[in-house]
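Structure (tokenized):
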């Protein structure tokens, strides 16, 4: 005879206490801070964004353990959007103009190339390409149309392809981390 199986299994769903949440997030501190920095492109704003996101997550005691990191990333993203207020460029702005800090010749790291994107393109690139958010999710969070998101992603990828000179990505990532955050992480 068929017996009903429990939907959630025999394990009880565990909730994270404030300490559990903080322990989970401290394991991901570097990743979360880098996420903040890629969104804001400013060390001071990244620090503010990171601490606001962590503070809001710490206030929520009854968070599922499995979703603590996801919730922290969403809090950081929402805080960065609130701080930077990225918006699509207007028709009178040239979508292919170079921004300050861009180098058109010589060696440019992928990290620097991403930071060189304008705010909206950078947010769309980080959200869609690095964080795997859908176009719909990006457009809702950034309060713009799906078309704006698709255009910004295309422009960002074209700019990154034209300015980034490929090299050993692992060595580049470690070097960029050490250079950008040597004096800012405690």
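Design, position by position:
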């Amino acid at each position: 005879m068929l017996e009903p199986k429990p939907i959630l299994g025999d394990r009880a769903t565990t909730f994270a206490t404030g300490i559990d949440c903080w322990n989970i997030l401290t394991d991901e501190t570097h990743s979360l801070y880098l996420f903040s920095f890629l969104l804001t492109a400013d060390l001071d704003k990244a620090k503010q964004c990171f601490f606001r996101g962590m503070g809001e997550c710490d206030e929520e005691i009854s968070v599922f353990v499995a979703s603590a990191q996801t919730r922290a990333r969403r809090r950081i993203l929402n805080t960065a959007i609130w701080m930077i207020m990225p918006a699509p460029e207007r028709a009178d702005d040239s979508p292919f103009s170079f921004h300050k800090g861009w180098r058109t010749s010589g060696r440019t790291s992928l990290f620097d190339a991403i930071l060189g994107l304008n705010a909206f393109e950078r947010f769309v690139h980080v959200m869609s390409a690095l964080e795997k958010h859908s176009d719909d999710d990006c457009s809702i969070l950034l309060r713009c149309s799906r078309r704006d998101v698709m255009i910004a992603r295309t422009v960002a990828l074209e700019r990154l392809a034209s300015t980034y000179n490929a090299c050993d990505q692992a060595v580049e990532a470690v070097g960029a981390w050490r250079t950008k955050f040597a004096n800012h992480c405690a």
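Reviewer-requested clarification: Confidence is low (pLDDT under 50) at residues 1-11, 91-105. The beta strands are 15-16, 63-64.
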